[in-house]
Amino acid sequence: MGNIKQSFFAGLFSVITIGILTLLTYKTEYGIFLIASFGSSMVLLYGYPESPFAQPKNVFFGHLLTALVGMIFLYFVPLPIYLTIPLAVGFGVGLMILLNVTHPPAGGNPIIVIMGSVSLDYLLTPVISGSIIIIIFAIIINRFILKKNYPSKK
After folding, report:
1. Within a domain: residue 90?
2. How far is 62 from 131, CA to CA, in rounded Å?
3. Domain residues for 91?
4. pLDDT of 11-56, one tens digit each?
């Protein structure tokens, strides 16, 4: 029965969080708040909040680091896209692990950045602002609604 409750609330709170990011993106003039990798972040933040990969430090810095790596490859590595994408993903994954900020959904950010040829503004919106919003929602929902120890005190 616990699995049904967990899956229900993970789905419900994913709808709410991604819904807010979608509304901010499409119904305001504030910019883009939504990226595909945030959908994957929902799995960890609401399905497995006790995971080290779901902790705020990992979510924020994992997304920021891999988006930044994608931009470095996009703007400064003059190779064909079929080489820059795998190299950027590899460097991003390696750096997340090295710096102990691993957040698996963020591994897709270099692909998004390079294929979308994004501008430097992309780091502020959606990466930084969107990450902060999903972390705030995760803290509110996990700690205050579901009464879970999130972020974990490890």
Report:
1. yes
2. 10
3. 2-145
4. 999 999 999 999 999 999 988 999 999 999 999 999 999 999 999 9
